[in-house]
Amino acid sequence: SGRVLTAFAAPDKLAQLREQGGKLASEALLSEVRACGYATSSGKDTPGARTLAMPVFDALRRCAFAISVVAPAERFQPERYMGKLAESAQTLSNAIGGAMPDAGDLV
User: Fold this and answer.
1) 10 Å Cβ neighbour count for 51?
2) Which of 21, 34, 42, 105 has the most CB atoms lying inside 10 A of its own CB?
3) pTM of structure
4) Residues facing 50 on adjacent strands
5) Where are the alpha helices (DSSP H) in the chain?
C-alpha cells in the first residue's frame, strides 16, 4: 500500500514526493498508520476492492516494501488475516536482515 510506504518513508523522501506533486495521505492519517503498524484502504481509489497492508523493514530499519491482502469489499475481513499478515511481514523482515524501528523512530 502506498500509505504504508509513505507513512514509513524518511521525512526527506516525503518532502520530495510532495514537491513533485505527489498525492499523499494527510499527516494525521500517516501518523495513524505508523502508530498501528498497518493501513487499510477504503476502496475509494479502486471501487469494490479493499486492502490491508503492512511494512517490511530492512537492516537499517527502513521500510523496504509493503505486503498486502486485497479482497473484494464484500469479503474484506481484515481481522481474519491481520495476524497472519503480521507474521508474514515479520518473517520477510527477518529474511532480509531487517528489524522493526524503535517506537520513537516512527514519529
Assistant:
1) 22
2) 34
3) 0.86
4) 71
5) 2-7, 11-19, 27-36, 78-95
CB 89 within 8 A of CB 58: no
Q: How far apart are CA 7 and CA 106, in angstroms?
A: 9
Dihedral sign of CA atoms 10, 93, 89, 68 in order: positive
**CA 96-97-99 angle, 5° bins:** 110
Q: What is the pLDDT of residues 3-40, one digit of tens each?
A: 999 999 988 998 899 899 888 899 999 999 999 999 99
List all residues 6 or more positions away from 72 whose beta carbon is below 8 Å from its beta carbon.
48, 49, 50
